[in-house]
Structures
1.
Amino acid sequence: MDFAAFQDFVRQALAEDLGSGDITTSALIPPDETARAAIIARQEMMLAGLPLAEMVFQELDPGVEFFRVVRDGTSVLPGATLLELEGRAEAILGGERTALNFIAHLSGIATFTSRMVLSAREKGVRVLDTRKTIPCLRKLQKYAVEQGGGVNHRFGLYDAILIKENHLKLLSARGPGEIGRAVRLCREKHSGRPVEIEVETIEQLEEAIAAGAETALLDNFTPQEVREAVQLASGRIRLEASGGIGEENFEDYLTEGLNCVSLGRLTHSAPAADVSLLLKTASFE
């Protein structure tokens, strides 16, 4: 991941928090005073977002020094030190909340993803993300999914074919057989690209198999319907379960023969991880 591409984003985040300046710190702390600090995990978590945190402090103090303890994609326990840094106290305090917000959000995604991946591993089911991301944060959120062991689904509308319910509704106005027609039209326009199609019933799955689609997205299927789909497909088409699946019912969907589960909750509902920054005036031992 090229985090340098997010330099302007980091500046915007700092501007949102600092505005014209940190009036509390400027009243209390001389601008030339230095300090050391540590970012600490307050829970068991999968780390993501550390490079962004470093960029925050570097933006405020180009001379800041970092002593990285762990790296993104590392599982840590409560109390673990994630990063140590030394620089101007004013810069550390000014960047504290922005840096922690980045780590908390992205580590929350990575942590939630890692739990789902661990549950699915025994059945050989992969865990995918979706496009249900915060606008303009998609690349970072999908990065966090990868750090948690998940797999990125298509990044946008431009890089993979996925025929959705509303596509089929529009095609149905031209007569029956819209599933077969949709697959054929996509192949004609984008030769060589695999075709995935969203199906809502076992009957539509049969049509998708007959049409030669590579993947069927089983939309809002119940766990029992997913098992029926696996039996019907018999390996002739990749199967992805999606819709209405969360941590509370995730394991109900896991069955051998299901290839993957996609979860919008990985990015739109993962709880933030609990992290904090502790500042010291003296050097760490």
Note: Residues 89-121 form the longest helix (33 residues).
2.
Amino acid sequence: MLTADGSQICLVESQQEFEALCTAWSARDCLAIDTEFIRTNTFYPKIGLLQLNDTTASYLIDPHCISNWVKFTALFNNEATEFCVHSCSEDLNLLQTSLATVPNKIFDSQLAAAFLGLGFSLSYQALVKLLLGQDIPKDETRSDWLKRPLSSTQLEYAANDVCYLLTLRDALLEQLQSKNVFAWFEEECALQIKIATEYENQASWRNTYTTISNAWKLDDEKLERLQQLCFWRELKARERNKPRNWIAKDSDLFSVANQNESELSTESLENLSLSDRRIIARYGAEIVELINSPLPDQGVVDRTLLNFPLRPPLRKKLKSCQAVVAVLAEKLSMAPGLLARKRLLQDLLRDYENHGELRWQGELAGWRRELLEPEIKPLFS
């Protein structure tokens, strides 16, 4: 079988062959990588296939045949090896949760396209068509990657997802450097790696209550309950390997936290209006015990992290900030969504209301601050 660009497709189903390839790849300065997985009824994605391309061939690694990944993960720690990927977040998440590590250095072709103003969330197929003039079929998007044997159509589809990546990288890299935005791009790729490595950090789970809609309406005592419930759900979802919403809906956690009784009981749960009442049968007793005997060391709830509605004056500021972003993005020929999504600007303004100053934190630090602060700061003087 051959890929769309005419290169060889090699299915790797042996540990010995895989390790030999890893040894050869250790001398490469860049490898293309992609993954195929299923995540329909589990918390953690189930890896079905790992694809790599080293310019000589597209290799399809069957993870069901690999028992030892040490030589492969060593490539991630090789400072000289860069991994080229398209739209990295899900792939990095899969690698982090299945192999407990991610590459030290990546080149995300979707991010590169956004920095060059080619589109904010451009698909791999669209980018290949735009830059290389080649058409790639997208027939196996919803394929079952866990079944065996994989069909020839599946194998060709998977191989095509990496066969053009290194060629795209060369073309995009040249444009990034010509446009003098490569340093910003590198910084953004590093941020994506950091986000992936934080996914299994328990400390970050303690703030998941801040993502619940209307959490800002709760008083401190009820907000502490919501914090306990959200942290419990993070633990339970991973323990049972089920999606968060299968454990408990956001709205139901809010309803439980918002009940007025000082001591929660199974009867009081029964009286709540819940969108999924199965939570009572499955976890009712556990939730009652949790709320009445909270887990220790949850930390103090922080109201400044909540997504409260912006007051009218700040809503006007938000529109002004969005206008600045639009103008600056056009000037830089960059996707506005890359420069500053609405959510990031809302977070900046909420933080301003809480602290009385613009604090450029998280994703708004670094290259975004460098570009935006000189334009946005005068709006607050």
Note: The longest strand covers residues 30-38.
3.
Amino acid sequence: MANVTNWIDHLSAEEVVGAVYPGAGSMEMTLVIIGIVLWLGWHVLTAKSESDELERLSRKRHGANDHKSNITDW
């Protein structure tokens, strides 16, 4: 195992110049696009499930005082 005593010399050496970690420069945009797609998908799924839940609750037509009867599915 090699010991590095001077990082500036090490990172400017010919065999190390460029990427310090694997995939540098090639994976960032792919990961950003995947992250945005997952983020948008999560929002779409959440909005759909919330609207389904609200629609289901609105069909029950609870009264103004039903919460006093300890209805658990309020």
Note: The two ends are 64 Å apart (CA to CA).
